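Minimal example, chain plus flavin-adenine dinucleotide.
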Amino acid sequence: MSRPRIVIVGAGFAGYRTARTLARMSRNKADITLLNPTDYFLYLPLLPQVAVGILEPRRVAVSLSGTLPGVRLVLGEAHGLDMDARRVRYTDPEGGEGTLAYDRLVLAVGSVNKLLPIPGVAEHAHGFRGLPEALYLRDHVARQMELAATEDDRDRCAARCTFVVVGAGYTGTEVAAHGKMYTDAQVRGHPLPQGLRPRWLLLDVASRVLPEMDERLSRTADRALRQRGVEVRMGTSVKEATHDGVLLTDGEFLPTRTLVWCVGVRPDPLVESTGQPLERGRLVVDPYLQVPGRPEVFACGDAAAVPDLDQPGKYTPMTAQHAWRQGRVAAVNVAASLGVCARHPYRHRNLGFVVDLGGARAAADPFGVPLSGPVAGAVTRGYHLAAMPGNRVRVAADWLLNAVLPRQAVQLGLVRSWSVPLDTASPELARTPGRPERETGAGGRSGAGEGSGAGGGSGAGGERSEPVHEGITEIIDNTEKAQLAGAEPPPHPADRELADSRPPEPGPATSRPGEPAPDHPGGEPARNQPGAEPARNQPGGEPARNQPGGEPARNQPGGEPARNQPAPERPAQSPGTEPGRVPHEHHPAPGPVRREDIPAEGDT
Ligand SMILES: Cc1cc2nc3c(=O)[nH]c(=O)nc-3n(C[C@H](O)[C@H](O)[C@H](O)COP(=O)(O)OP(=O)(O)OC[C@H]3O[C@@H](n4cnc5c(N)ncnc54)[C@H](O)[C@@H]3O)c2cc1C
């Protein structure tokens, strides 16, 4: 038999670990292909630190090819699965189409921002699910503070320095805690007019912050936030977002230009296209992480509804701790399905959580022992360093520099408001003119299929979603580690007919169970939001005058008009291009360089 082809879709916590474990187990006896839109694994728990300038973005982006020897990386986004023909269709970063044939498939596509049907939110809020959103927020907050400092009108100044975060799960809590420190540091040297202070509000319909976590952690976080001056408003959410601010459910209107949406996530819409049973939008799998009726297909992480064997009838929550562990079990069970070893069911063992509250403060409960203050801070940072699969020295160096030097509050303006829409199936990628975009899926606006994931609080909708986050980062399971060591875009391109018809092998026997326009949250006019009327001067819709710094849009990265772009790339059959690759006719914007790996047998 030729080498089995294993395709892993998604290189987040689950997919990365599946690939790493399989590479170690297979010892080059299998073709392992990892399909991911970016060439890095994103360590999401440290994203709030990127948004406030503690960490540079590349610190939380771990190179896939640099850390996964024996794994072939294909850059692209899957947009269709043909489970009968065992093919994955994908679009590369430049719009080219390809297919990957597999004998075993692991779906680990994670989740995207959850939207709720609240008027104005899709247009005026920004999510917090990927690097582009974190970079946008960092620039936006710095810009609002700088503009507030020169604002003559007191009300406009107050609106600029009011920041509203919705969702008091770990993402929203960390963003608000870090954000307040960030803006306080900015005004220390340059006080705002008329004695105004930056104002951060954290809202949630839940009765306490970190509603999914142990109450002791919740109290620690609540205390730290209030001491820092964050206005914690539980039992309150957003009724409507407008150009001028947000209307709260208690009737108060808050003038603001910033609405950060951390109410949670929903599974990546790709899983809907499988046609397989879903549980609240997640692909149903058995305890061996196999899709019932499709023993050659595995799923794990946020995108999969994995039965919680410790709580019968429930599914494991959407957290990094589960995704990371499920990735290992998926790899072992893929190997088992190829006759290498025995398979194992996935079982959860909670070792505790950590929440970084900025400065030396954190809330943690390793092995159920509640910690707060600097001890928790040290445990939290130690945990993150140990848990990251790479870049540890770089992260530690940034922390050290941040401890002794003032933070750099400069905005580069590289990520525009319109390029990070809340409603997107690809939060890991900034929208660029001409890049095809995946459908956001039916569940988008309704929030169907959601978890409160991504540290989402119960957010804005009023109804708490399930499955819910249990909390924050897991404490490292050293035993497990040791075992492992041993072991405005154009429409989406039309789907292409699949060429290669290599017959599938029988599956294994398994069980089946500028200056922003005034008065807009986000600092940019609603008409410039994706989905609204495009501005005439810029692809993607943002007018040049609204760029920070006033620089014309054509000179902005990502904002260049099509006529100034490099000539379209040659079609696919150029040397080094994957054979059989479908050429794309038009490249209005440059994209990342395509890797030119040798295709595995059966790929097109
Ligand atoms: C800001 C933030 C902080 C968080 N902090 C914590 C924390 O402290 N502790 C904790 O336990 N959890 C935390 N979480 C939640 C945790 O990050 C997720 O539960 C976890 O990332 C899920 O892992 P995953 O592998 O399923 O998905 P992800 O890590 O999201 O990875 C999915 C991967 O699939 C790729 N992908 C998506 N669609 C496609 C496609 N169509 N084709 C190819 N590739 C695709 C994505 O680019 C990505 O690389 C946090 C989340 C956020 C957003």
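Residues 309 and 347 are 6 Å apart (CA to CA). The two ends are 21 Å apart (CA to CA).
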